Amino acid sequence: MFRKLCVGLVIIGTMAITLSCSGKSSNSSKVVMGNNSISTESSRIENNKKNKNGDQSNFELVSQGSYKIVRETYDNNKGTKISYPQISELSDVEKQKELNEIIKNEAFKGNNYYKDVDGEVTIDINYKIVCQEPELLSIIYSGVGNVSGAAHPSNLFYTTNLDITNRKNLILNDIVNINDDFVNMLINGSFKAVNSEYQAEYKSEINMLTLEDWKKRLLAADPSDKMGNEFSYMTKDSLGISIGVIHALGDHAEFEIKYKDILKYIKLKDNPHFLEFFKDIKN
User: Fold this and answer.
1) Cα dist. 175→93, 222, 262 in Å?
2) CA distances, 27 to each of 84, 85, 128, 198 (Å)
3) Is the pLDDT of residue 258 over 90?
4) Exposed e or buried b per residue across 69-85, where buried means at least 16 C-beta atoms within 10 angstroms of its C-beta
5) DSSP letter at 140?
6) d(CA 167, CA 257)
7) Which segments of the chain does DSSP mark as H helices, in order?
8) Beta strand 121-133 pairing with 80-88
9) d(CA 99, CA 82)
10) Contacts of 106 (CB under 8 A, 6+ apart)
11) Would you say 237 and 261 are in contact if contact means Cβ atoms under 8 Å apart?
């Protein structure tokens, strides 16, 4: 009798474990449309999560309480693969939809690198979130593109600075006043190269153009309808600018400067929607 009772308990316990395991749900899904597919994966990284080196991971940050980020990947199964973020759990559903459409369109700008070329094109682009705040989402896209017959693949780089409140993409000219003094800060080395290994080579590249040339290029930075060479991004404490360089130096180079060092040039600091973002810098 006792043995039968034990066997019955084991069977009941096994059934409970099986039901528990079968009830688990996946955090990813995949939608197939014709020959294209878009897969979605939820981000589960807490905003204060540390990586194995103890540094805060900023690859995919979950929000400061107002929204979360999920990863989507577009794959046309013909050589083009672009990963991009999408906003989720925003209280305003219509606003979330509009913001996500802006992000998606910006992410697909990578196709513009090879818009008018002949030959088979392959593009593989990933993204990195460098700032996620209630009023701002700044995204860096980078990857590799190639066209059949080309001497070498190209390193691709572009960005999106999303004004969450006003539902629009910010360009460099929206963020700072691009006057002669500001441009000179890039030319004279006040901006620091993210990859310091090529600091001297980057300086030589920059000095090949005049102040007026750079001013025109920075005023045209962050184009929405075509693929340019200059892009901007925003971190919590710095402004970043990416410029085009020769292939031997990586095709693009990024430079950053602290907001506190360019405070007088920053237009956004007086914008009511960004007062909280810049309050620690202004004080």
Assistant:
1) 27, 11, 11
2) 16, 15, 20, 41
3) yes
4) bbbbbbbeeeebbbbbb
5) E
6) 26
7) 2-22, 93-107, 172-175, 180-187, 199-206, 211-219, 275-282
8) parallel
9) 18
10) 84, 139, 160, 169, 224
11) no
Encoded tokens for 160? 């999106």
Q: What is the rounded CA–CA span in Å between residue 30 and residue 33?
A: 10
Residue corresponding to tokens 């920059």:
206
Angle between helix 180-187 and helix 211-219 axes, rounded to 10 deg:
110
pTM, entire model: 0.78
Q: What is the pLDDT of residue 280?
A: 83
Question: Which residue, 181, 159, 173, is CA-closest to 262?
Answer: 181
3-state secondary structure of 21: helix
Cα separation, 168 vs 138, whole angstroms = 12
**Residue 241: its H or E element:** strand 238-244
Instruction: Indicate whether 116 pLDDT > 90.
Output: no
Question: Do 89 and 68 meet the contact criterion of CB atoms below 8 Å apart?
Answer: yes
d(CA 74, CA 66): 26
pLDDT digits (tens, 9 = 90+) for 164-183: 999 999 999 999 999 999 99
Those residues with Cβ within 8 angstroms of residue 32's Cβ, 6 or more apart along the chain or in another chain: none
- Asked if 230 and 172 touch (Cβ cutoff 8 Å), the reply is yes
